[in-house]
Amino acid sequence: MTTVAMTILLLSTSSLLLHCSALPFQQRGFWDFGKDIDVRDLMMTMMKDQEEGSAFEEVSPPDHPTCPFGCVCQLRVVQCSDLGLTHVPYDIPPDTLLLDLQCNMITEIREGDFKGLTNLYALVLRNNQISRVHPRAFLPLKRMQKLYMSHNQLTSIPRNLPASLVELRIHDNHIQKVLAGTFSGMGNMHVIEMGRNPLQNSGFEPGAFTGLKLNYLRISEAKLTGVPKDLPESLHELHVDHNQIQAIELEDLSQYKHLQRLGLSFNHIRHIEHGVLSYLPNLRELHLDNNRLSSVPSGLPESKYLQVVYLHSNNISSIGLDDFCPTGFGMKRVFYNGISLFSNPIHYWEVQPATFRCVSERTAVQFGNYKK
After folding, report:
1. Domain encompassing residue 351
2. Same domain assignment for residues 372 and 324
3. In DSSP terms, which residues pair with 218 in a beta bridge?
4. Is residue 335 in some structural domain?
5. Mean pLDDT (whole number) for 331-343
6. pLDDT tens track for 122-153
7. Do 230 and 283 belong together in one domain?
8. Where a domain ends, among 152, 171, 190?
């Protein structure tokens, strides 16, 4: 399958890809994993991986090509979305690389549903009614890298996920527990999106993430009262926004020295223990907006690489001269390019101009008007 052929497919099938209610995903950078997937972007990613030789091996096409009724099959891409299917079709071509089954009425994934699909790269099952997955259903998928099962009715993460998996999206289900060993042997995993599940802190069993080298994790819109314990130490990005967290303590973030982006927006945070940010030496972006903070968190001046801080919609009534910038030289490596402080009871005319001496430009600081 050549780059030209895949490009032709992208152009000729773009009108067939997304007909269900979920918004399309448009990934423009490393930090956009939290949005829904667009199959066009997935195809482009697959094409890039193929060119780099990281996702495929050559598989001979079948002697008698087949295509499930109503689906569109071309160049190892099988599109069966929006067909009202109640089960996975049985006659999927064995050389399929991308299988799109989103926006159907599938309720169960059976043991033999993916038999023979040993070269499958991506499986899209979002927006179905799946509540059961056979423990052996994914065993044939030895090379699958991307699995999308968001917007279903799962109560647990499927067992025996392929060790080759790189990205798992399973948000907006009914998952209440993440069992120990769920991700055992999955050394290639980079992204997990499991937001909008009724997960409490007690729902994460000890060892749930053992051995996982993860870059990105989102557990937003859940029922967390604190940052979950024992998350992968390799995390570069963590989102636990839209939860019920009331405080951030030293032990909550002490092991995440690689973290670059932290999302804590839309919680009930009143207190951040002094010294928390010292454990995050590589932090670039901090989201603390829409909480109940009464002051600027300590430690910001010592965060050498911090560039963006969202503090709007809190209860901050005053800002000190040294709340953001260090007093000495050679401490902060980069200037801020975004500080939001609007929707706080701050009299901006009382803030000394030197407070923002380490900000790149005046427009980087947003005060706005406070209305009680």
Report:
1. 272-372
2. yes
3. 193, 239
4. yes
5. 92
6. 999 999 999 999 999 999 999 999 999 999 99
7. no
8. 171
**Residue 202 token pair:** 């007690």
CA 334 to chain centroid: 26
**Regarding beta strands 132-133 and 108-109, do their DSSP bridges make them parallel or antiparallel, or are they unpaired?**
parallel
The residue to which tokens 């549903």 are assigned: 113
Q: Let me know: does 119 contact 103? Beta carbons within 8 Å.
A: no
Amino acid at 321: L
Identity of residue 50: Q
Q: What single-letter amino acid sits at 100?
A: D
pLDDT tens, residue by residue, 161-195? 999 999 999 999 999 999 998 998 888 899 999 99
For the domain that residue 302 is a member of, what is the CATH number? Answer: 3.80.10.10
Q: Could you write out the DSSP letters of every residue in 50-105?
A: HHHTSS----PPPSS----TT-EEETTEEE-TTS--SS--S---TT-SEEE--SS-
Query: What is the CA angle 174-180-182, rounded to 5?
Result: 65
C-alpha–C-alpha distance, residues 64 and 214, integer Å? 41
Please give the angle made by the CA atoms of 150, 185 and 57, to the nearest 5 degrees.
80
Which residues 6+ apart lie within 8 Å of 2 measured at CB? none
Residue of 331, 338, 321, 326 whose CA lies nearest to 286 = 338
318 and 334 fall within a common domain = yes
Query: Count of domains in the chain?
Result: 3
Residue 252 lies in a domain: no
Is residue 262 in a domain?
no
